[in-house]
Amino acid sequence: MIRNLKRKNIIILKDIIFSIIGCIFISAGIVFFLLPLKISAGGFSGIATITYYLFNLKLGTVIWILNIPLLIIGFFRIGKYFFFKTMFATWLLSFCINFFENMNLFLNIDDILLSAIYGGVIIGIGTTCIFKANNSTGGTELLIQIILSYKDNIKVSKLLIIIDSIIVGLNLIVFKQIEIGLYSFIVIFLNSKIVDLFIEGVNFTKIVYIISDKSTEISNKILNDLDKGLSGIYGKGMYQNKEKLILMCVIKKRDLIKLKEIVKQVDDAAFMIISDAIDVYGLGFTKESKI
Asked: How is domain 205-276 classified at the CATH fold level?
């Protein structure tokens, strides 16, 4: 029991460190590269950029205020543990953004393309750290989590594109510069690709084998929470000479972190094997495993 408690404390510490690093990178990318040129990274930061220039409101403060209603709803819909982690990361991101903004260390980069590229990459690195911590900085990510808790058959990627497109469209209407919208889409694209690269490498699909004494509970949770199909393969543990049900699941990149979290919640001692899937054929997957 002491060993399990120590392991949980290490995981919590790791999540806190990754969350802090992630928030620093995201806020630096927004304040130093995007904000001076009115470029949007989508999400609530895009809305905050508009209020910053129209009403001279602090970027971080607006992001925090926009997240408060979602955090209240999320407390009842996504679980208390995830709520407190998200609240911490959201507050920290808002604090870091205001801190960097108050420093007045704008880089004054005249090349808007360079700003979009470096801003997108830096924000992508920060977002990767947040994902590594199984956390969220609120905004559209939290909104999608809440929407999925009511209607779980919505495609996440399409929902993200719709929300970010609406926010970038608002930037276009307010600032009346089509270039800002075009460069904003570059930032959003680079952000998603950096996350793909760091979390999943060049492979987009994984095969996950799960060996646990609680395979039935794990499979039910995967079916209900992730809405993913999986198969059971009967095997035999040679050490204990005992038959076991091995779960096999083929998932896309965006679901891997959530799957790990589900398995840990049910059985912290579960044995997992994760390997790359080169070609996947069938419903929900294409030949080259592109998403």
From this structure: Alpha-Beta Plaits (3.30.70)
